[in-house]
Amino acid sequence: LLQLQEYSMTVFFRQQWRDHRLSFGPYADPVTLNYKQISDIWIPDSFFRNEKDAKLHKITVPNRLISVTRVGTVTYSQRLTLTLSCQLDLRSYPMDNQTCYIYIET
């Protein structure tokens, strides 16, 4: 008996990439940008393929952080609550063991 179910979780989704256009001084410390400046930086268009619902946390401000190192390494983090689908095999219920995956694509 296969059944499509869902599960929810709150995560900090972090991505990191290098953008040489953002490199700066050889002895400078990493720069943390304000959440209002995020729209000025290229960000990968990542999504959750098995997502049924998602919410970006915005209390008291959007829970997003972006920092840039001197060599142009960008770290982007955002807090999300996700509801994801998962196909369950209930043939051995209640002695079953389920594995649900998070499918992320760009």
UniProtKB/TrEMBL annotation:
InterPro entries: Neur_chan_lig-bd, Neur_chan_lig-bd_sf, Neur_channel, Neurotransmitter_ion_chnl_CS
Keyword Lipid metabolism: no
Family membership noted in the UniProt record: Belongs to the ligand-gated ion channel (TC 1.A.9) family.
One Pfam family per UniProt: Neur_chan_LBD
Keywords tagged on the record: Ion channel, Ion transport, Membrane, Transport
SUPFAM superfamilies in alphabetical order: Nicotinic receptor ligand binding domain-like
Highest taxon of source: Eukaryota
Name of this chain's protein: Neurotransmitter-gated ion-channel ligand-binding domain-containing protein
Domain Neurotransmitter-gated ion-channel ligand-binding: 5-105
Chief site of localization: membrane
Compartments reported by the entry: Membrane
Bilayer topology annotation: Multi-pass membrane protein
GO cellular component term of the entry, any: membrane
An example Gene Ontology molecular-function term: extracellular ligand-gated monoatomic ion channel activity
